[in-house]
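anyone else get weird line breaks when pasting these?? whatever heres mine. first is seq + tokens for prot A
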Amino acid sequence: MKKIIITTILLLVFAVAPATAQVVTIDECQQWAVAQSSSNLQKELNEQLLQVKLNDVSSHYYPTLQIDGAIGYMSPITQLPEAIAKDYDIATPRHDLYNVSLNLQQVVFDGLQASYGRKRERLLNNNEISKLDLSIAQLKEQVINMYLNLLIIDKQIEILSNVEKIFQEQSDQLKALLKAGVVYANSIAQLDVEGLKIQQQKDEMLANRESLISSLSILTGKDLSNAEFVQPQLPSVSYDLGSSRLEFSIFENTINSLEYQRKLHISKSLPKLAFMAIGGYGRPNYNLLSNKADWFYVVGLKFNIPLIDWAKTKGVSDIIAVQKSILESQQADFTKGNQIAIQEKINEIKRIEHLLILDEQITQKYQEIRETANTQLLNGTITTMDYIKLQNDETLSITAREVHTIQLLKAKYELMALKGQL
């Protein structure tokens, strides 16, 4: 009985205990969002599609087997002079024909069409995979922006809560002095009004926070309503202009695929070689002087050598050369644009780092001034409005420092995205 009572009490305790906050990192949110997206499934489907295309490109290497047949009437037929036909008792060939045969062909050399075709399909498939990876990188950037915006809001709420606490403490001390007739009630009312304004700001920020958490929960597929978001360490990034963005591999693969497309067209003008075997039954067979239906067969090699197709081949090559030139110019423009964006982001990072040094100094000074003002307010040497202004100045300096810290994080993540390192 005692065990049952103890178990019941424990269940009730755990039931009413508040839910503990789930600690969440920025890397976890990115991993959850990627796992939640369909990009990985699309990659697997693209691999399956590639195998189908590769098999299709080289399918002409599989042997072909077909049944051929004919029934008809021949107008001109092979005939020998009448004297020879009588001497050798050769019957006059008949005009009707019928036959059925089995035709087997096996390609031996296709002019490298299968080789070039398979390489081109692999390059095009790599482009599709790179485009999916690009969408994953964009998804990560979206998650990072939401996460860092949440950190900014949490910092602002924390700062406002501290200020609200300071105002409340000063209000309580002034109320004690009010009873002694040292201060006026107006001073307390001014502090209370500032406290209400702070509560108003916090309510607005909490609403924005809830909206961001809802969006982030949808992206990650996780319930983050009780999550505690940890501020990440500043990522280590290099300040050179080098970049490994996926667009560069897309440009390279597209240019190389055009080259294989050109080779593929040229290969159509190369000799083709195939093994053949034909066997069947009918009349006439390969013995044209016999009127009897009989079995026949032939085995050997079949070749094909195109002689005149140069004009079309040159036209296609010229078109592909122009397309490659366009792509190369687009690649050069993208490279310059990417380098400019990287340099601008590096300059922004250095600017924020300098601001943070000044933020620290400004915040320290405002803290010293405000601590002195705490005593001055109680002594009546400064007005309540002067104190509120000093407190607001300190709050703004602390907020600026925290916002700049998050902006530095964001700028470094954006630099990583520009360099293709997310």
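and prot B, same format (seq, then tokens)
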Amino acid sequence: MADKSNTEVLEAEVVEEKVDTKKQENNLKKTSNSSTKKTDTKAGEESPWYVFCSQGCGFCKKAEPHIEALQEEGYDLLKLDVAEGDNQKLSQELQQEFGVKCGTPWFINADTGKGVCGYREKDVLKKWLDGEDIPEPPRPKGPMPRVPLLGVSNKEELEWKKEYKKWSKENSHLPNLQTADQILSRPRPKTEPPAPPNPQMTNEQLDEWGEKYDTWFKENSHLPNLQPVDVILQRLKRQKSMTGVGQGQNAPAVGGNVQQQLNSLEQKVDKLLNHLGVTL
């Protein structure tokens, strides 16, 4: 009888110990979940939260304070520069894997494929890091009518206003649409600019392009943030000299880093012209 009683006591102690152990495990799990909620990254594992950026990308620069603030808050967000070959390759592989086409900045979870293409405010990025699906921003149904050059006739401006009014009605879903008068009040070029320089141009061809650009630059000196031709040509020629681009058929292939910088410069010129309402 005594042996049976002792056995029951031992069994009860074992059960109680198991219950206590389970409680400790649950408490530990809760603590662990609380401390890793923002990253979902186990010790020793690389974060799947990436943001791909590029040199000279204005929106990447604009996003930097948000990225740093989120990192300080404990989010394990890795910033990767696509100028580095391995990062560029990883970006291309992820875009192919998840069927995405995006420039920079590109925020992506490499495990789930959930991402954000382009610049967003910090609160939106925080929702993405917390696992929410972020919808694509509204897009226009068609290109906006080309803004007329400065100094055109009133008839041309009135015709453009009619076209813009029709376009704005068709795209009323877009936020912060400006009125026609607001757009026309912005700085506009007086003349058509030359086409952006091709990275494959020779130095002689670049100089010829520079003469055309310099003429246009002087005619449109009222426009803000225009770069002088010397600055553009110096940068292009310096980058070309590093790769041998345009120096002959036996020139080495363009490296990913420099090619990307050349493309970035060309995109900057395009964006500036688009901002000014000039299409080529």
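btw re prot B: Confidence is low (pLDDT under 50) at residues 21-37, 248-257. The chain has three domains: 49-129, 140-185, 187-245+256-280.
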